[in-house]
């Protein structure tokens, strides 16, 4: 089997497993939003989501880029420097723990100042008890990234995509059930980080002992820590900006329009995030692959895997967003009547996600090339655009304006990365491979959704009917055109050859 075919087979096998985990994570994320909406209402859930947003933004800085550094450097060491695996893994986890603790301390002082100036601030009250989970979350994410960089995808999926997301809604329901309120719900959201972090570290240490040989003394004086820190420092900024792009709108909407509006916007946006399961599943697999291919300077294999991943990303993600757009009111009804205003948010963000997916896993290519500085610059431009549009559009259009700002910023971020990959790395990437799968998915599900909406109304009956008919058409089309859609790779058995 050729190298390109082998890499595609690895993508198919790893992507299938990662998809299962991402699907579980997305389902648990939706259940979490439903639990918050049903138990705390729009205002209470808005407080929790703003606290979670602030925590997640801080976590982007707290892990100090060590999670991305792990995915970048460990696959390369696995090929040509196994004696460096153990000290590198320990260094990655130790730095993330120290940075996480420092970030928690700074944020604790910020929250204390807020409470002095605004006694009884509900978001500050909900954020304070979860601050000290920052180093735990930082270590967990770094350890999980290292496990998948070393090829243990199923451990990453089990801990990060199944265990943690499943525990969270259960913990929140229990906390609210005993009358803990928004503060207790926020603490319950953070509490499962502890067992997840412990499991991730244990798995990583076992992997390092199995794969890495005894290290030579003087690791800290070698070039490896400097290379990792040089890669990670821009990534600290980039990671924080990534989370700002996701969560900042919730916080700004809360400041401008109040916690109820933040709860509606945040809950609607979580439905869109649940649709990212294919993107998440593929990114988990392709990032270490891209690092290896770039290290080998194997451009043909990388371009082939990138095109295949783009086709699958658009093909399998678009149906979710088509149905969410056509039946937005039905999805939001799970949360309660007070969340109906989120309908335009769900529609706009679904369309924005589809457009962005045409760029494929372009951010992973740029990051795995070592250009973390360019990625940080892109995120800074995207966040600045997002903030400017938020303050311009939210006073005019409310949460609909926030959705437009997010969609524009995400599309700009992807476009910048695509241009840089073509010009700086010289790789042939474009949105063209995604156009045909977009057409297949849009026609297969779009026409049944329109007909069901017209004759059955925006109802559960209409949604289920559109899903069943659209799914049947989609499967038949994929079966008949499986070669053009690269779906034969999903059925190919693993090669027994190493090359």
In short:
The protein has 499 residues and is mainly α.
How do the helices and strands line up, and which of them pair or pack?
Layout: H1 3-62, H2 66-80, H3 85-117, H4 122-127, H5 134-149, H6 153-177, H7 181-190, H8 193-211, H9 223-257, H10 259-274, H11 277-296, H12 299-326, H13 328-332, H14 343-357, H15 362-368, H16 372-397, H17 399-423, H18 435-456, H19 460-480
Describe the protein.
The longest helix is centred in the first third of the chain and has 60 residues, at about 5-60. Helices cover about 80% and strands about 0% of the residues. It has helices at about 5-60, 65-80, 85-115, 120-125, 135-150, 155-175, 180-190, 195-210, 225-255, 260-275, 275-295, 300-325, 330, 345-355, 360-370, 370-395, 400-425, 435-455, 460-480. About 55% of the residues are buried. It has about 500 residues and is mainly α. The radius of gyration is 22 Å and the shape is globular. Residues about 495-499 have low confidence and may be disordered. It is built from 19 helices and no strands. Helix 1 runs parallel beside helix 3 (about 85-115) and helix 15 (about 360-370) crosses helix 17.
Determine the mean pLDDT: 81
- Low-confidence sequence ranges: 493-499
Secondary-structure-derived class:
mainly alpha
- Helix-strand pattern: HHHHHHHHHHHHHHHHHHH
Roughly how many Å apart are the termini? 7 Å
What is the strand tally? 0
The whole-angstrom Rg is 22 Å
Number of helical segments? 19
Largest sheet data = none
Shape, per Cα inertia axes:
globular
- DSSP helix fraction: over 70%
Beta-strand content estimate: under 5%
